[in-house]
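Q: Predict the bound structure with dihydroflavine-adenine dinucleotide.
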Amino acid sequence: MRALFVRVVVAVTSWRAVRWLFTRTRIGRRVALRFVAGEALDDAVRVARGLNDAGMSVSLDHLGEHVTDAASATAARDAYLACLDRIAADGLDANISVKLTQLGLGLDEGLCADNLQALARRAADLGLTVTIDMEESNHTGATLRLYETVGRVHGNLGVAIQAYLHRTPADLDHIIPLGGHIRLCKGAYDEGVAVALQSRVDIDSAYDRLLGRLMEASETMPAVATHDGARIARALDLAVMRAGPFEFQMLFGVRTRLQQELVEAGHPMRVYLPYGDSWYPYLTRRLAERPANVWFFVRALFGR
Ligand code: FDA
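A: Predicted complex:
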């Protein structure tokens, strides 16, 4: 059921008329703003400041992915460099989250490595960290390779792993000893049965197993990236036995009351905060995660 829903939403949102509705109308943009800070860095800084004031740290995502030329990859790198400088100048409690296909991974792994190096170096100079998002499964191998090689040089990288991928337990064996921060999420892309678990129950069980391993690993800093109450309860149980730090991570605009409750209970919370004008693919993934989000859009369309 989950896989079918994701497939339908991905197909429908790729229609030109639907894209137009979202990106060119006031209603579409209003729906987007539920999940995105705004289009400018100033918007992101303003929202991040508010989240910091509410006791949450932030991971800033300058939206964009799958660039098709080197100049766009360089522009994305420069936007992130500006973002890092601004985090430091404004004294925000924040890091950045980057997608490697935005830094040129789909074009040339060397170009992407250079761009990632530049971000890791600037972040290290400023005492900040960089988390690498995980994208479609055809990029998983290269993403982990760059995480390892660039991370070894600068020591300030983290990476997301996806519980739904069959390969993730083996990947975890390899990356836990590297010692960075590891964000465990369920996985947001439309993946086939050969590479990924399909049912919610199977994905949740895989998440719990991986969470258990991460919370036992003292050499890494786990980030529990989910809005799922049962997974969060399990993390809280495991945290009692954990010697080192860990944090919860949630997406901006999703389960905000729960975010606040966890902070009030004394748990570290980092909010993933996207900004920029390339927000459409991000929005479609958020719609695909939850049928209610599609109804939210339909209701907004009819003014209810
Ligand atoms: P699940 O989908 O089971 O949702 C549990 C409950 O949370 C729902 O019942 C609903 O109440 C609420 N909820 C979940 N999603 C919602 C939404 N969009 N809108 C409103 N309510 C919602 N994926 C990936 O492939 N690569 C990555 O790098 C990342 N990075 C990442 C960072 C952070 C901080 C988070 C929280 C998530 C990601 N993801 C991701 C996305 C992740 O893989 C997954 O698609 C979503 O988090 C939804 O799964 P949940 O774990 O929240 O559970």
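A: The CA atoms of residues 3 and 224 lie 23 Å apart.
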